């Protein structure tokens, strides 16, 4: 596990929030007025369609999508022009012919929905930009707890539409698009933080052109894992620190349906393995000791002053993502470091420096040339096995700090 870091992370979070707010707010406003009318029997002169246009100039298609959950049967519109009045919607919802009658058998349901959505709208900024710790505290406090049902689920999903983020995308105030590709490009992360093994580069526009001469779009992109389950905690389905760029192996095959807990697993925006947790290797035969074979054991070692709770999280992530098993399949990387020690008597970097005296290489530059990877933990996101490589080099005393 490596920590996701970026010098402009706050600016990226602000841009993500801007795009989400422009999309989510008008939808929440629509539902607030709808539930107010249905639950508190407040007369609203404007039609539902007018409400949509009033709150964010939503299109007819958007209007139909928002209102559809409440009109499973009965009349959906008047003269097929989507000009239903609020009172007409109320009459349909309270009709026994309505297929969702079981979910809306009294006005209290709509009152609770109204009050809930008002609370969400009031705290929308913090919901989208909450840190992992803050999200966890909100979940524990049950601040936004509401009895789940079809209306709640569909209204939340349509307001906080993750499929829109990964599909057509949102719009920023300047009109530019903000979607999953824009987000991962901004984060500038090339390797999965969960495994630090698989590339997760973002390529939005390809070179290949179709018969019409149009370049291929959305070529490749990391998957976005929801650390806090988007089905169990739908309000945080668009929260930037709940969207973890990750590889298909870690997200869809290893983590899969495992529900992460902030108290039990490492969160990439909060912690990585860090300096107090390091990979340790042992050659299982003489040839491997000299770097001429690939027979090694791999384990995690800890400094004595390491945080006990942190270590438990590390071990949990290590097991879930099968790090020991997977890393053993790449033992040739380990053998290369062992070989460099063997041929240099632990002075490989000094040898490299003597080869290029006029280059005046810094320690970081020299390390990168010597081991083909990055020295600083903040850069581990740029190349596979960055932490493993550095930990072994330190273990074999090829680098000294």
Question: What does the model show?
Answer:
With 401 residues, the chain is mainly alpha-helical. 45% of the residues lie in helices and 10% in strands. The chain is elongated. It starts with 8 loop residues before the first helix and ends in a 6-residue tail after the last helix. Mean pLDDT is 87; it is low at 74-79 and 98-103.
Describe the SSE topology.
Layout: H1 9-40, H2 48-54, H3 60-67, H4 86-93, H5 107-122, H6 124-129, H7 132-141, H8 150-159, H9 162-165, E1 170-171, E2 177-178, H10 180-187, E3 203-209, E4 215-220, E5 223-226, E6 243-246, H11 248-255, E7 277-283, H12 286-289, E8 296-302, H13 308-320, H14 323-328, H15 331-344, H16 348-355, H17 363-371, H18 386-395
Antiparallel strand pairs: 1-2, 3-4, 5-6, 7-8
Which percent range fits the helix content? 40-55%
- How many helical stretches? 18
Largest beta-sheet characterization? 2 strands, antiparallel
**Could you list the spans in which at least 5 consecutive residues all have pLDDT below 50?**
74-79, 98-103
Task: Strand order, main sheet: write it out.
Answer: 1-2
Principal-axes shape call: elongated
What proportion strand? Answer: 5-15%
Mean pLDDT over all positions = 87
Which sequence of SSEs, written as H and E, runs from N to C?
A: HHHHHHHHHEEHEEEEHEHEHHHHHH
Number of strands: 8
Radius of gyration: 27 Å
What is the end-to-end distance? 22 Å
Find the structural class using helix and strand composition: mainly alpha
């Amino acid at each position: 596990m490596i920590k996701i870091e970026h010098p402009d992370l706050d600016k990226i979070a602000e841009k993500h929030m801007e795009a989400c707010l422009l999309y989510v707010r008008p939808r929440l406003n629509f539902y607030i007025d709808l539930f107010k009318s249905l639950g508190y029997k407040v007369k609203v002169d404007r039609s539902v369609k007018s409400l949509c246009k009033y709150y964010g100039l939503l299109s007819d298609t958007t209007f139909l999508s928002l209102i559809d959950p409440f009109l499973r049967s009965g009349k959906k519109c008047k003269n097929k022009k989507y000009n239903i009045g609020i009172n007409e919607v109320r009459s349909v919802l309270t009709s026994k012919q309505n297929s969702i009658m079981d979910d809306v058998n009294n006005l209290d349901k709509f009152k609770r929905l109204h009050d809930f959505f008002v609370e969400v709208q009031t705290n929308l900024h913090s919901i989208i930009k909450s840190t992992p710790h803050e999200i966890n505290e909100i979940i524990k406090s049950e601040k936004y707890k509401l009895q789940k049902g079809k209306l709640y689920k569909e209204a939340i999903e349509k307001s906080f539409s993750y499929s829109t983020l990964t599909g057509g995308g949102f719009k920023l105030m300047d009109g530019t698009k903000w979607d999953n590709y824009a987000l991962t490009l901004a984060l500038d992360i090339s390797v999965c933080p969960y495994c630090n093994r698989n590339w997760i580069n973002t390529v939005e526009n390809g070179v290949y052109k179709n018969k019409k001469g149009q370049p291929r779009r959305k070529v490749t992109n990391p998957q976005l894992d929801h650390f806090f389950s988007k089905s169990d905690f739908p309000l945080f389905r668009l929260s930037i620190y709940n969207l973890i760029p990750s590889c298909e192996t870690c997200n869809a095959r290893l983590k899969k349906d495992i529900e992460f807990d902030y108290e039990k697993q490492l969160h990439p925006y909060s912690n990585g393995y860090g300096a107090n947790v390091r990979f340790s290797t042992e050659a299982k035969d003489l040839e491997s000791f000299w770097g001429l074979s690939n027979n090694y054991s791999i384990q995690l070692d800890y400094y004595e002053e390491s945080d006990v709770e942190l270590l438990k999280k590390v071990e949990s992530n290590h097991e879930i993502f099968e790090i020991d098993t997977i890393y053993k399949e790449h033992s040739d990387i380990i053998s290369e470091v062992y070989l460099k020690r063997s041929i240099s008597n632990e002075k490989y970097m000094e040898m490299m420096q003597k080869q290029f005296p006029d280059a005046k290489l810094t320690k970081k530059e020299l390390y990168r040339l010597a081991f083909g990877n990055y020295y600083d933990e903040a850069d581990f996101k740029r190349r596979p096995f960055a932490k493993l490589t550095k930990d072994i080099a330190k273990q074999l005393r090829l680098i000294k700090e």
